[in-house]
Write a structure and sequence with these properties.
The protein is an alpha+beta fold. It has a domain of 52 residues: Alpha-Beta Plaits (2-Layer Sandwich), CATH 3.30.70.100. It contains three helices and five strands, in the order αβαββαββ. Strands 4-1-3-2-5 form a five-stranded mixed beta sheet. A hairpin with a 5-residue loop joins strand 2 and strand 3.
């Protein structure tokens, strides 16, 4: 079953601030797994963290709100959402 058949949606998020070197990707993977999302998280060369996630729309909204706070060691300055498509893993992976 693909995401459109299951009612799941896919979104991308770019997280800005002090988000690299502060366990942000590990925290993101744990939060996504707790919420039952699947997707990926990776550091970008420009210092941001990019997240692709698939799940129920309400769950993705809750996840975005958590990304805007981040783990205690991070300092999130903003989260930009964007359309995301393509194949995602069945779990949530750090790239």
């Amino acid at each position: 079953m693909n995401d459109s058949e299951s009612g799941w949606h896919q979104r991308g998020f770019r997280v800005r601030g002090r988000v690299q070197g502060v366990y942000f990707r590990w925290w993101t993977r744990r939060r996504a797994a707790d919420l039952g999302l699947r997707g990926t998280v990776q550091n970008r060369p420009d210092g941001t963290v990019e997240v692709h996630a698939a799940g129920e729309p309400e769950t993705l909204e809750a996840f975005a709100a958590e990304l805007a706070i981040g783990p205690p060691s991070a300092r999130v300055e903003g989260v930009d959402g964007f359309e995301s498509d393509g194949s995602l893993p069945t779990g949530f992976e750090i790239i």
